[in-house]
Amino acid sequence: MADAFENILGQPQVREFLRATIAGGKVSHAYLFTGPAGSNKTLAAYAFAQSILCSQTGCGECDCCQRVMRKKHPDVRYFAPEGAGGYLVDQIRDIVADTSLAPIRAHKKVYILDRVDLLGSSSANAFLKTLEEPPDDVVLILLGRTRESVLPTIVSRCQVVPFRHIPATEAAGILVQNTGATKMAAEIAIQACDGSITKAIEFLKSNERMTFRSRILEVLSSLALADDWDVLTYAEDLVVRAKAPLDVVRASQEEELAESADFLAKSAIRQIEARNKRALTAKSFESLRQMTAIIRSWLRDVLAVCAGVPELVINADVRASIEEAAARTDEARAAAALAACVEADRALTYNVSPETCLDALLFEIRSTLYGTGSTHKAAV
Ligand SMILES: [Zn+2]
């Protein structure tokens, strides 16, 4: 049976549950989807929204379904934490105020709140009443990493829908089945996207991302012979490339703003502009994380070759450069370089500037793997 839930890959139980909910007309007012990053929660939330709003329970074809799918339906709202540490109380108050407004196109409104594990107690308090008893035409879908990481006062007011962790090999298999990609390409994309099938599909489709990956791998394979100036140039180039997808996001934001400028109040436009700015920051962060994920997977490959298990190499298209790097280093040093990369990833989440972070990481990888330029003490 083809419906909006068909695309919730790797989650058969979730799919059946949501199907039964729609078929039985038993949609409740608040859901909490729990599961690790990459378990398809966001996609499932949009599919569920489609089925709730579409007059044919999510046909996937009608104008309503198309709008939801393209994330352009005014009655499906998506929110992510806007503060560095999580949801801001003001942000929650805005959402609460918004729920009392009538739907624009459909008969109901769906609110998707991502990362509610980052909903602190004061923002949660501002939300509890709405969560318990939202207006009749509102459905709330909350997304969180684990049930335990979400405040109990939130959990107890929602119908909890658990998503399973999809192992990387299974995720790659799903990707092969659904995109026709080769097994190698699928594994590479899954590694670069930290296990997320949805992001991996985007990654495979994007020439720009594939070029980004090639450049990162090129830099890594050149490190052994690079002098300090080379390393600085590489880092600068990679940071510029990491920011490239922002142009696309910015263009679509401007287009959207131009479309709505006629009927929106100045204050509403300012709000959208502020939200757009935060979306750009999030996108840039995602791209940087993709870069460190690609570096990690290359280092893991070098480690696999050093450890005598070359069959575990994921980036098989650059096997020659991986073997060359492995020949210049050993297992312990490759493991140490990998640890440095995990550390750099953490530094990025603490808002260390990407330039500083990547400079330090490339120097660190070079000195750890090859013992050159070891006077440079990385500040990651
Ligand atoms: Zn439809």
What is the overall silhouette? globular
Helical residue percent band: 55-70%
The rounded Rg comes to: 23 Å
Low-pLDDT ranges: 374-380
State the end-to-end distance. 51 Å
Q: For the report, how would you describe the main beta sheet?
A: 5 strands, parallel
Summarize model confidence as the mean pLDDT.
90
The order of strands across the largest sheet is 2-3-4-1-5
Offer a few descriptive terms:
380 residues; DNA polymerase III subunit delta; P-loop_NTPase; disordered C terminus; binds zinc ion; Rossmann fold; 16 helices; DNA_Rep/Repair_Clamp_Loader
Describe the model:
InterPro entries: DNA_Rep/Repair_Clamp_Loader (IPR050238), P-loop_NTPase (IPR027417). This is DNA polymerase III subunit delta. This protein has 380 residues and is α/β, with parallel strands linked by helices. The chain folds into two domains: 4-162, P-loop containing nucleotide triphosphate hydrolases (Rossmann fold, 3-Layer(aba) Sandwich), CATH 3.40.50; 206-370, no CATH class. The protein is 59% helix and 7% strand. The chain contains 16 helices and five strands. The protein has helices spanning 12-23, 41-53, 63-69, 89-99, 121-132, 152-155, 168-179, 183-192, 197-205, 207-222, 228-242, 245-260, 266-306, 319-328, 331-349, 354-370; strands spanning 30-34, 76-79, 109-113, 138-144, 159-162. α2 packs antiparallel against α3 (63-69) and α13 (266-306) crosses α14 (319-328). The longest helix has 41 residues, at 266-306. It is globular and about 65 Å long. The structure holds zinc ion. Residues 54, 56, 58-59, 61-62, 64-65 line the site of zinc ion.
